[in-house]
């Protein structure tokens, strides 16, 4: 009796193992078949986003390949290393695309991508992902509203610290009725990134080592 | 399988046992993603695909699965199918992948998929099970899309907005502005709106059912009266 039970359990376990192996095999196969296409479409999507805020006229190198990983920083609002894309014109540093986050949005973190010209002026800002209230705070998305374009050309010099606020708080920046916590968070984060750029310009534009590799793979 | 049986299976999925209105299984995606037609339709179709495949495969291997290990095997199978569908959508329909986000892998945990595998496919043939998965999936998709439409009209005043994200720029022309200069109605887009709209839909379905029954009953009495006369 004991024996047959052990046998039955063993049989069941083998059966499960068999299905697990087949499943794993199928997944591995699909992964392999789709991997290149997925990487390509993700790169394309990123490039599309980058081209919105860093006009191709601003650089002549392959911006997707000229990257550097920078450490997490309080000014960037992130807690992991991020990739910076660098645009160069005739070998001279011209524009950098940084990833940052505003930690204090109404619904939590707002992930941003920001391009800054070599002269410290913003090329553009885009929201990559957020959890703001739909219909109220989501006007920070370019798909919903053009609000985010207010940062174009702005720099640390264009507005003093005390003016770098929404109108409601006595600053010079527009906001849309309904949500002020959201634009406040974005505004603060963008200012901080500009500060980061001013402090770490050398690091951001440092020549890439000959061989670049992505450790996330 | 006779054509009457086939009809019954399909009708079960679309109406009698409709996932969204009667069985009320898999409500998480139903409530979360039905805030616009495009989201609802996309997730509905992805779920239908998974249910059709899982129904067929479970029915095909039901003889070789040991009874006591069947649930883990079903879960494994569904997880594998969902991941494959996810990878394929990620590779060949990237915009759709972005729209569905986390709800695509969550199809695995949608209890309706496991429920149909256990309740139907494990006891029926391949063809019947595929049909059942398809019927249930289409029924769910219909309710999801309807709910998405209602919430989109009340929430944004539009219909079919965002179709261009999935079907390319040509679909931009499809967007219908139902109510021009609409300021939006937030609760319709947020989860409470989904609960309210779903409640109304269920009530509507029950009302239609009652009406049908009533009509059948009056017909029956009429015919008996006729016979008596």
Secondary structure layout:
The complex is a heterodimer of chains A (217) and B (229).
Chain A: H1 2-53, E1 67-70, E2 82-89, E3 92-105, E4 108-117, E5 122-129, H2 181-205
Antiparallel strand pairs in A: 1-2, 2-3, 3-4, 4-5
Chain B: H1 3-16, H2 19-23, H3 27-33, H4 37-61, H5 70-92, H6 94-100, H7 111-119, H8 126-156, E1 158-159, H9 163-167, E2 176-177, H10 186-189, H11 191-228
Antiparallel strand pairs in B: 1-2
Helix pairs in contact in B: 1-8, 4-5, 4-8, 5-6, 5-7
Q: What does this molecule look like?
A:
The complex is a heterodimer of chains A (217) and B (229). Chain A has 217 residues and is an alpha+beta fold. Chain A folds into 2 domains: 1-53; 57-205, no CATH class. In chain A, 35% of the residues lie in helices and 20% in strands. Chain A has 2 helices and 5 strands. Chain A has helices spanning 2-53, 181-205; strands at 67-70, 82-89, 92-105, 108-117, 122-129. Chain A has a 5-stranded antiparallel beta sheet with strand order 1-2-3-4-5. Chain A is elongated, with a radius of gyration of 24 Å. Chain A starts with a helix and ends in a 12-residue tail after the last helix. Chain B is an all-alpha fold and 229 residues long. Chain B has one domain (3-152, 190-224). Chain B has a two-stranded antiparallel sheet. The mean pLDDT of chain B is 87. Chain B contains 11 helices and 2 strands.
List keywords for this structure.
heterodimer, A: 217 residues, alpha+beta, five-stranded antiparallel sheet, 2 helices, elongated, B: 229 residues, mainly alpha, two-stranded antiparallel sheet, 11 helices, 2 strands, flat
